[in-house]
Amino acid sequence: MSKTRDRLKALGPGVITGGADDDPAGIVTYSVVGATTGFSLLWLLLLATPMMIAVQSMASRISIVTEKSLPEVITAHFSRRVTMFVITLLVIANVITIGADLSGMATVLGILTGIKPGLLLIPVTVLIAYLVIFNAYRVVKTALLSLTLILSVYIVSAILIRPDLETLLVNTFIPHISFASGYVVAALGLLGTTISPYMLFWQAAEEREEKRTVVQAAAADFDTVAGMLYSNLVSYFIIVAAAAVLYGSGLPIATMKDVALALQPLGGRYTFALFSVGVLVAGFLAIPVLAGSSAYAIADTYGWREGMDYKVSDARGFYAVFLGSLLVGDLIYLSPLSTVDALYYSQVLDGILLPLLVALLLILGNNKAIMGSYTNSRFNNLFGLFTLLVSLGLSAILFYQAVF
Questions:
Q1: Which residues of the chain have a pLDDT value below 70?
Q2: Distance (Å, rounded) from C-alpha 116 to C-alpha 107?
Q3: Residue 12: CA atoms inside 13 Å, Cβ hemisphere, count?
Q4: Distance (Å, whole) CA 68 – CA 161
Q5: Are residues 397 and 387 in contact, defined by beta-carbon separation less than 8 angstroms?
Q6: How far apart are CA 133 and CA 128, in angstroms?
C-alpha cells in the first residue's frame, strides 16, 4: 500500500507529458484521422502505446542515470554538430506546433466571443508566458496535472455514440494496411502526434527538475506508463468519436467547428462549448511544454542556466528562448495554411523527425559506458526498434509518393 502511495505521489513529468500530447494539434490530428480513415487506424494507435512508453522511458532513464539532459548526453557522446542538427529540427517542429496550437486556441476563442482571432493571439500568448514565468515549477506542475483530467470529455462522448462493438474490436486488434497517400499521411500524423519529439526532451528535462536518482527509476517508469496510457486512452476515443460522426458523412473538415462535431452526442447544442474547453485546456497544457522543451534543449546545448524554478534575471537565455518560441509561433497565424491544416501537418512533420531521435535513444540507452547496469530493457529495445522501423518506413513511402 505504501509503495502505491509513493508512486502516486511521484506522478508528474510522465503524466504532464502524456496530457500535453493531446494538445490542440493532437485533438485535430486524431479527429482528422478518424474522419478520413474511419476506425481503420485504431490498430496503429494500440500498437503505438507500447512504442510510446518505450521511447519515453528511454529518454527519461537516460536523463536520470546520467543526471544530464538529452542535448548534454548527445554532445558528450557524439558531437555538438549532431546536437545542433537535432535541436534545430526540434525547434522548427516545436515552433510550427506552437503556432498551430495558438492559432487553434485563438480561433476557438474568436468563435465564442465574436472577436477576430488575430486580436486574441497576443493576450493568449501573454497569459501563457505569465503562468510559466511568474510561478515556481511546483505551482505550474500542479496546475498542469489538474488540467489533464478535463480531457476525459472525449471518452464520454465516444461512449455515448455507441459505435458498433464488433467493428471497433476488429479494427483495434486486426491491422488494416493501405498504401494510399491519404492513409500513409494519416498514419504518419498519428505517430507524429502520439510520439512527439518535444515530449522526449521535455520529460528528460523535467526528470532533472524533479531531481530523481537511479533508485527512483521504477517510480519514473510508473509515472511514464501512467501518463502514456492516459494520453492514448483519450486519443483512442477522439478517433472513435470522429470516425463515428464524420467518416463517410461527406462533411468537410476545414474549420474547428467541423472537428467539434465529434462531441455532439455528449453536448448537443453545447457541442462547440465542450470542444472549446478541451482545446483551450489542451493548449494551456501543451504550449508551455512545447516552448519549454525548446528552451531546455537550447539552454543545455549552450550551457546556460535553465529551469522554471529560476527567476528571469537568473536564467535570461532560457526564458528568452521560451518567449521567442511563443512569439515566433504567433506568426504562423499569418501563414496561408488554415488552422486545421497547420495543426494536422505539424504533426506529420513530427512523424518524419521521429526516426532520427529514436535511433539516438537506442544507441545511447544501450551504451554501458553511459548507462552502466541501467541499459535498455528488452521491452524498450523491442518497441524502440519497432518505432524506428515503422516511422522510417512511413516517411520513406511518403517521400516516394511525393517525388514519383
A1: 1-22, 136-138, 140-148, 206-221, 223-224, 249-258, 260-271, 337, 339-340, 343, 347
A2: 8
A3: 24
A4: 47
A5: no
A6: 9
Angle at 163 between CA 159 and CA 165, to 5 degrees: 100
pTM for the model:
0.80
**Three cell numbers at 86?**
537535432
Q: What secondary structure letter does DSSP report for 148?
A: G
Instruction: Output the CA–CA distances (angstroms, integers) from residue 153 to 187, 265, 270, 311, in the order listed.
Output: 24, 11, 13, 36
| Distance, C-alpha 10 to centroid of its chain | 21
Alpha helix (H) residue ranges in 216-315: 217-246, 256-260, 264-267, 271-302
Residues 19-61 pLDDT 10s = 556 677 788 888 888 888 999 999 999 999 999 889 988 888 8
- Alpha carbon distance 229, 340 (integer Å): 26
| Alpha carbons 232 and 229: distance in angstroms, whole number | 5
Asked whether 41 and 33 are in contact (CB, 8 A), the reply is yes
How far out from the chain centre does Cα 56 lie?
A: 11
Contact at 8 Å (CB) between 351 and 37? Answer: no
CA–CA distance, 3 with 28 (Å, rounded to integer): 38
